[in-house]
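User: Hi! I'm working on a homework problem where we have to compare a predicted structure to a textbook description. Could you give me the structure for the chain below?
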Amino acid sequence: MKLKRFLLRYFPPGIILEYEQGNELRTKPVDLLTLSPDTDVEVLVNQIVRHEPLISEQRKPQVRKLVYKLIEKLESNETQNFYLFKILRAHILPLTNCAFNKSGDRFITGSYDRTCKMWNTMTGEELLTLEGHKNVVYAIAFNNPFGDKVVTGSFDKTAKIWSAETGECLHTLRGHATEIVCLSFDPHGAIVATGSMDSTAKLWDVERGVELCTLIGHTAEIVSLNFNTEGDRIITGSFDHTTKVWDVATGRCVHTLSGHRGEISSTQFDFSGDLCITGSIDRTCKIWNVNTGACVNTLRGHNDEILDVAFSCTGGRLVTASADGTARVYNTMTGACQAILIGHEGEISKVAFNPQGTKIITASSDRTCRMWDAESGDCLQVLEGHTDEIFSAAFNYEGDTIITGSKDNTCRIWKC
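Assistant: Happy to help. Predicted C-alpha cells:
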C-alpha cells in the first residue's frame, strides 16, 4: 500500500487518503468529526500518524497544514450577517421546493406550474426550464456531489431524470400508482429513490432509467426518505407511524422502527450512518440505532407537531422544528436539550444547520427566516421581505449563501 496524495473534506472535517494497492487506486477517510478551533493540533497530528499506517512521520508537516486548513474553514463566516442579494420571481404559480448543487453556483426550483427551473446563483439568471410533467413538480434534487443531473418527482405519478447541462429529459420513471412526494439520489449518483402516496418507495437505475426494486411494507404514504453516507441503506418515513430501514442492494426491509404515536413527518441519517432520527406529528423526535433497530432516545418538549428534523454535519447535534413556533437543539449522545429557539410567530416547517454546524436556519409561516447560534440558541438575524409563508431554506456547501422559497412565488438569495 502506497500513499499517493491527501484530499481535504471540509464538511464534516476529514482527510481523504488516496493510495495504491495492487495497481488499484483506493481512498480511505480519516474522519475528524470532533475537530474545533480549540483542538490541540500537535496532539491530533501525532494521533493521526500513530493510528494510520499509510501516513509516515515525514508526512507530519503536511498533515499539520491540512488540519489548520480544516480549522480555518470551521471558523469562516462566524460573525458575518447575511444580506438580501437577489429576488427571483421564479414561477407564475407557487413554488414547492428549492435545492442547491454542491458548489452552490446553481440551484433548482419546483412549482405548481409543472416545471422545474435552474438558476445561476450569482447572477439570478434562469438557465434552464425542465418541462414535461403533467402535474405539480413537488420533489427535486441534484445528484450531488456531481451536479450533472437533476431528478424531479411529480403529482403525475412519474419522476424524470434530466441533464443539468442541456435540460434534456434522459428518462421518465413510470411505475408508481399515485403522486411522488419525496426522492433522492444515492451518494454515488447511480440510484434514484422515489417515495409515493401509494405506500411504496422504488429504487431506479439512473444510467438505464429502469426500476431496480420496489420497497413494499408500509401501509400509508411515504413522506420522507434518505440514503446513508455509504449509500447501502435507505430509510423511509411514513404516515403509518413507522420508519423502515432497507438494504439498497436487495430491497429487503432490515428494521421497522415502531414507537411513534402519529404520522412521521421527517427523517434523517447521521453522517456515520449508525443513527437516524424521526420527527412525528406526536410531538416527539426519536433517535434510533440503525444497526439494531432500537430506539436510543425519545426527545420531548414540543407542544405541537414536529415538522422537520436535521442533524449537524458531524452528527453531534440535532435540531427539531415544530408547529408550536419553536425549534429545539439536542445533544445527540445524551439527548439533552441544549437550546430552545424562540422568536417565530408561526409554525416552523424547515430547519437546517450550516455546514460548519455553528448556525441554524429556520423557515416559518410568519414570512421570516431566522438565523440562530447553535450553541447558545440566540437569534443572530431575521431574514425579512417575503410576503407569504416560507417553506424552504437551504445553505450552500460553503455556508455563505442561503436560498429561501416562499408561497409568494419568489425565491430570495441571501449572501454574507
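For your comparison, note the following. The chain has a mean pLDDT of 96. The first helix runs from residue 41 to 51. Good luck with the assignment!
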